[in-house]
Design a protein that fits this description.
Helix content: 25-40%
Number of helices: 3
Strand content: 35-45%
Radius of gyration: 15 Å
Order of helices and strands: HEEEEHEH
Strand order of the largest sheet: 1-2-3-4-5
Length: about 110
């Protein structure tokens, strides 16, 4: 299995694992969204909470030029840490939600 195929599988598994671990309210569900053409991944929370419709992006991850870009993480359980534990090297993970001039100081990839 080549590197990008492995990275894609790891990302999907980590998002699916998070969705299985988190316990949303009764009429709310977590959906893993994947665009295989653009290498775009999201975990979305959606459904009804009482009389209010909920649609929230929990994670947004892209694979860009061989690197895993964490574009958004709305949790206190960082997805980047889980991706490292699953086998993606820290230098291949870019924290896209940090400004470009800050990324070099994060210990992660710079893009």
């Amino acid at each position: 299995m080549d590197k990008l195929t492995r990275y894609r599988a790891i990302i999907r598994k980590e998002l699916e694992d998070f969705a299985a671990w988190a316990k949303p309210p009764k009429d709310v569900r977590y959906e893993v969204v994947h665009d295989p053409v653009l290498d775009h991944f999201e975990l979305v929370e959606c459904g009804w909470e009482n009389r209010r419709y909920v649609h929230i992006v929990i994670f947004h991850i892209d694979v860009i030029e061989g690197k895993v870009w964490v574009q958004y993480d709305a949790t206190d359980r960082p997805i980047a840490t889980e991706l490292i534990r699953a086998g993606i090297p820290k230098e291949d993970i870019v924290l896209g939600f940090h400004p470009p001039d800050v990324r070099a100081h994060t210990g992660y990839g710079v893009g």
